[in-house]
Amino acid sequence: MYVITRYFLCRIKERVKSLRLILLLSILFHPLTVHSEDLKAASDIWSPFFMVSNNQYTGIGVDILTEVIRRTGDTVSFQYLPIKRSQVMLDRNEIDIIVLDSPLWNTPEIAKNMLFSNNVMSIQEHIYFLKESYIEVDSPADLYGKDVNILREYYYPVFEHAFNQGLVKKNEINIEANLLKTLIAKRCDAIFMDSVAFHYTISQLGYDKKKFKRGLQLSDTILAITISQNKSHILPRFNKAIDDMKRDGTIDKIIKKYTE
User: Fold this and answer.
1) Domain 123-221, architecture per CATH
2) Do the beta carbons of residue 177 and residue 201 sit within 8 Å?
């Protein structure tokens, strides 16, 4: 009787060891799926960071967020929303993420309900001219009496006084492609644009880069993934994925895909 009992005890111990091994291997190969979530992300149209065609979403921000959630084990669905609507829905927990944003672009009142991931990338805005009509600009006074086209609702603190006083005439354009088209058509003297969007758009339009000359840098802005306060628990794993992607060159490869 003792021998039989001992035999079964040994079998039970072996079974427990096997179950522990299976559990350990499951954790090692699927470390994040226990915490995975279905997340809702939104963005305004912003070439080449967030674009939509035939219900398919593309762009630098889309590719970066897709790779982040692949590494975290989460899933994400995208939708296009005007930025102000996105901010309201994030505040109401109707969406979880704004694809790419900057703390500098949000008032303290709006930003208080947002969490920002580690820095994903930075963008620099410059003044662009046709090469044949280049103006050396060190201050707004150098553009007094000139026409400048910018994207609608963009804000440039250094030039606000000159814009408001009519010393530099500001025209607001809806999309990046039309911004460049107005410059090519000489319907303005200069445009304000970030360098990533500039390189992507001239490539899409088939323009020769040599026709343009870049002038004064207007900004250097850090971009991050914006997360709802309600989803604060996902921030550590998002930050780890972002840091790993920066370290292994994935983010640089995604940016180059749209700019070269």
Assistant:
1) 3-Layer(aba) Sandwich (3.40)
2) yes
* Cβ atoms of residues 190 and 135 within 8 Å: yes
Task: Put residue 249 in one of left, alpha, beta given phi > 0 → left and psi -120 to 50 → alpha.
Answer: left
Report the SS3 class of residue 114. strand
Give the domain ranges of the chain: 1-30, 34-121+223-259, 123-221
pLDDT tens track for 96-127: 999 999 988 887 888 888 999 999 999 999 99
Residue 130 has pLDDT above 50, yes or no: yes
Nearest to 106 by CA among 191, 222, 194, 198: 222
pLDDT tens digits for 190-241?
Answer: 999 999 999 999 999 999 999 999 999 999 999 999 999 999 999 999 999 9
Q: Which CATH fold topology does 34-121+223-259 show? A: D-Maltodextrin-Binding Protein; domain 2 (3.40.190)
Half-sphere exposure of 218 (CA within 13 A, CB side): 21
Burial (0-12, 13-18, 19+ Cβ within 10 Å), 22: exposed
State the DSSP code for 249: T
